[in-house]
């Protein structure tokens, strides 16, 4: 058997059995919960659950009502349903479902007194990405993406569902720049009239929006719809009469707008960001037409906001490796923390939460050593439905333990990360797992977010999840440290971490590996060009040539900003910081992985490095998954990817276990 087709190999069987033991006990039931929502009085809580009916494809999404320690399905099993959202009175749940046409989400309403099917609202031209109730509960705001609009990298890249064009096989694929379908618009559904009408004018692209009083919405907008345009988006007020007023601009980025029920008070997060929907930063608050001002959020990079009433804003976010939930009082200017933890966190990309009118916060709490559980935090801690089952017990039994590690970069910058170690004594073979962004951050999450972490630990590897300069949770100045420094000062943040773990007897210097996706894929390819300590590397969804990345990715603004360079200039960082330009220095065997549908880091990036390595006689493999975008997400591709990862590390830096 060659390593072209790994199906049925001993490692494939081991990995398949791993996922079967993990998910098998909850087939047909949720294995992951997200998007918590609650009624104002907190008596009703709902979540979106990810459900595998079998280990094939992507999980479907379904809405669940939290009933004490139980979860009751709120939506049927046809298609996917997500983002349940209670009306201000709590009697009606709005949710989004693609039950009528796969991949195309529309608004549905489920009234408490209504039996049977949810009520479909008139279809909008596109797919609904999010919804929110007007403060008086008479209308629902819809964020609608055209069919074929680009998805963010953090959403898997590619495009929203696009009906198949009826063209002959020989017909060219033609691109003409932004088409009508690329735009994101705002619509309002009026419950009494049963009608849905367009709110945002032509020429305004709305990335995210919420109600701002009964007659307006607050939106993050751009004059163009392409993914790159998000990086210069502004905060706008869009009146129900269609008037658009710019409310604030920024030299960085905006996310998570929120407005009090009357619309008098506004809030938004201003942050250094590398990705749309991956926003953690400063909290700006304002009232009336006054300029928004930065408020003291207690050192937290804020990742979700919600006005609880006229004066109090609930928020969650990250502070170092801590996850924090707090309330900011706009009258006193004080922030009160409700909860913080380094052992657990909540939310997938970043912490997320919902608030009750009396200031309690609902989260789906999880940690590396804690399966997910719905928790209400106020004066008391109320623990509700938990995803504890035989599959979770299995992962707990094989995943070792997670501990905080700190070290200093050569320039003295203090750094931290989370180390997942197998039971027993080191030194262990060490895999450095590099996160994407670069502006994101590891925190204590189930599986540490990436499925291969507990799997590698089960095979005897220690896995270091470091937060280098540029990571979120350490304030905006820390995040800015990576501007112009990708492949510069950040390089030694990783090598100094490894030095520290070797010195402490945790890592074996002869068995050091690196894995990472996206920016982590860039850094994995870059590190092996910078020194020869690495025994094996797995860059996936990488950037390996910033020049060609700029002209093939759908986010060319990102690299120009984060490299602080210009691709047209010979000798610029676009060239000097590109791994392909240093391939002759590499001795590390590399497994290069990409998704064919990735528009963020196109698969040609992985191919360029693979070919450059082969040209220099370095062992290299290229695996391109035809149905995947930015990352490998669907079964059985996940099994295939994890099989190749385990095999690659076992071949070049064996753990002697498993
Ligand atoms: C290095 S090129 C683009 C990389 C990309 N950043 C900008 O678009 C990236 O690394 N994205 C991250 C974002 C992310 C982080 C954590 C959780 C979800 C998404 C990635 O895709 O990993």
From TrEMBL:
Q: Name one Pfam family in it.
A: PD40
Alphabetized, the UniProt keywords read: Acetylation, Aminopeptidase, Hydrolase, Protease, Serine protease
- Which Gene Ontology biological process is one annotated for this entry? proteolysis
Q: Per UniProt, what is one GO molecular function of this protein?
A: serine-type endopeptidase activity
Traced from the root, the source organism's taxonomic lineage reads: Bacteria, Bacillati, Actinomycetota, Actinomycetes, Streptosporangiales
Transmembrane residue ranges: none
* Boundaries of every Peptidase S9 prolyl oligopeptidase catalytic domain copy: 454-653
Give the protein name, as stated in the record.
Acyl-peptide hydrolase
